[in-house]
Design brief:
2 copies of one chain form a homodimer. Chain A is built from 11 helices and 13 strands. Chain A is α+β, with helices and mostly antiparallel strands. At the A-B interface, strand 6, helix 5 and helix 7 of A face strand 6, helix 5 and helix 7 of B. Chain A binds a DNA duplex through helix 10.
Chain lengths: 254, 254
DNA sequence: CGCCGCTTTGAGTCCATTCAATTCCGGTGG
DNA sequence: CCACCGGAATTGAATGGACTCAAAGCGGCG
């Protein structure tokens, strides 16, 4: 049984290899990875060890990089493209987050040598740097300068998930949407502009609702100065959006 | 303004002091804290430094130990009693978790020198060891043996919250309840027995539903062999419970 | 025994989802 | 350049699950 699972893993790995394209690390890429807070402090030699063991691959869109439940064998770094973290249970799928360059993901599973709790797939053609988990753990054990950044990374991720859990439990879908638009939008004068860089269905899943509900939520936001033009959202009353995001239950306007 | 806030903090602290009772550390307590995975590996001298800066307090039930939004000044260790982690937003409150001896809480906020994202209160009379955040950070910086356990603790907490988020987004209240009963129950022969060590309303809030819904969920679980007797829950078909917990959507029985 | 707080039950309402149909949009090929 | 196609997004109607409000049990403790 174990043997079969192992064989299956190998097959999967080879198939992925075939679908992907292994690239040599370019100096420029190494530099961007090196500049990540996670790696900024470690010694040159340890960083060299990590990069020596790592490899960079190019994946097409919609490639599943990580399968929830697998042993965490690599720390992934997204160098270019876009990655979705998600989870599947009894056929249902929910989006847990999105990753843009340059960031690492699933550090927790790698460090504690456990299985992944989430899956990951590319949403665009992407370049991913894969560092063997063992190399990460080795450097962690050897280089004390690595501990600080690792802890900061973990702690920040933890706090992010706590925020997500809170908003999931205490806010309505409309409020989560407002908060998302506000947090991620860019101010242009007195309007705020937010671009959704993926399908709206993904955003809906991330916010914990259906596409239809998201669509209706956008419609409701018209009362708050929001205009939707495809994947670009404008709001000419950012304060109204912020107020809603902070979950204003007192105001029952209509 | 700042001065007033500071004054307020001091008042709060003093009031807490008055409500609480400062205790001297007993050798026995020190030993239990020392045996925590988080502290097991650090050097004797560093541990001594931590304990020297720390103090143990006894709090009555329903005492708020941590106010969400405050700067994280202490790492708390629950030595005896029961603590609830919760969060408040626009008047609504949600329970995020429960802590029993012996465990630490809010390590993440302490390490990154940020504000607490959650509040904490005692649910029973409790003894809490409070270690100044700065002492924790100092030891972390000085003793490399501390890094591993810290990372393991953080990583596990992170994974726990991810699990909570997933179950919140993908499972029904009924399924979450089944999962909770199953995970926390004790096998006695072919029945499983679970004791709820706090108000059912707290459990409802933790599971993300109202008391009424929780009550109705218990009623529905009767079909799965569940009997409720006050705060003690029995199930004579643990497999049915487990199946439901794994979120069996396919089976539409009746 | 009687009070008080927690829990349960009931009834009605509301909001999100589901299912279904239509519109919108980008890309392709004639 | 335009017609067409398919996937995505929106809209509508109906369902259902969870919540709110209200009232009635239950249980522990003085």
């Amino acid at each position: 049984m174990i043997a079969f699972v192992f064989l299956f893993d190998i097959c999967q790995f080879l198939m992925q290899r075939m679908a992907a394209e292994t690239l040599t690390l370019r100096a420029e890429d190494i530099h961007t990875v090196r500049s990540l807070p996670l790696f900024a402090d470690i010694s040159e030699s340890q960083f060299g060890a990590l990069m020596g063991a790592a490899f960079l691959q190019r994946f097409p869109a919609q490639t599943q990089l990580i399968h929830e439940g697998d042993q965490a064998d690599f720390l992934h770094v997204i160098v270019e493209g876009m990655v979705e973290m998600f989870s599947t249970s009894n056929g249902e799928e929910t989006t847990i987050g999105f990753l843009e360059p340059v960031s690492t993901f699933i550090l927790a599973a790698v460090l504690v040598e456990k299985v992944y709790l989430q899956s990951a797939r590319t949403l665009e053609p992407s370049r991913i740097l894969m560092i063997p988990a063992q190399a990460i753990r080795d450097v962690f054990a050897r280089d004390p300068a690595f501990a600080g950044p690792v802890v900061r990374e973990l702690a920040e991720r933890y706090r992010e998930v706590v925020r997500q859990l809170k908003s999931q439990k205490m806010q309505s879908g409309l409020e989560r949407l407002a908060a998302w638009l506000f947090a991620r939008g860019e101010r242009r004068g007195d309007v705020i502009e937010t671009r959704i860089p993926f399908e709206k269905a993904k955003l809906a899943s991330f916010l914990g609702m259906t596409r239809e509900s998201l669509s209706r939520s956008f419609a409701s936001l018209a009362d708050h100065g929001v205009t939707v033009r495809g994947r670009v959202i404008f709001c000419n009353r950012p304060d109204a959006l912020a107020r809603l995001a902070r979950t204003e239950h007192s105001t029952h306007d209509h």
